[in-house]
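Notes from hallway chat w/ T.B., transcribed later so I don't forget. T.B. wanted the structure written out for a chain they're using in a teaching module, and asked if we could keep both sequence and structure tokens in one place. Agreed to drop them here.
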Amino acid sequence: MKRAGVLLGLIVILLAAVVTAGYASAFSSEGFYEKGGNIFDNWEICRTRAFGVDGFYQITEIGFRPVIAFESLGEQANMAYSLGEQIADEYPDPLQRAEAVFHFVRDRVEYTTDIDQNGSEEFALNADELAIAIMENGIGYGDCEDMVVLLAVMYKAAGFRSAIVLVPDHTAILVYLPDYNKATAIFELKDEPGRQRPFSN
């Protein structure tokens, strides 16, 4: 059993943050514009930078808040959220439901760097943008943060607690499944155990 309490101290429990976020009644992103060499959406979120109070993850010296996920939640929950709800309706068993969300994203998003996709070193998609691409084309393209944001929104819609985790040059998602016996690692956050499974078959 591996303990990673220090690492999990960096985690934002996405579900709690999203419910109380001030963005819950805002509108979906559209209409991108350039400012200072970066691309912003109409929420004033910088899509080409994770750092700073206007970055898509709002990484600062005092915190981390994956604000881009809020664009697909609250009153504006749209395509990605509805996909998670559909999976919840289809899979009443929580463990099967959790795996179905995971498999949906794993099987329908082809890992593609931002440089290869749009010529930028960094460009974050919100969950609806990636979900719409999947529904329209049968496949979506994105890198780790794009997949993680889609998973976080879909897991919330399917009734799960999840967290986005930052590690050097990567982002990942943890899902709270205390009864999941296929986990390869067990984490504990504030005396609450959880398990990790690699992002693979």
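Follow-up for T.B.: The radius of gyration is 16 Å. Might be a good example for the class.
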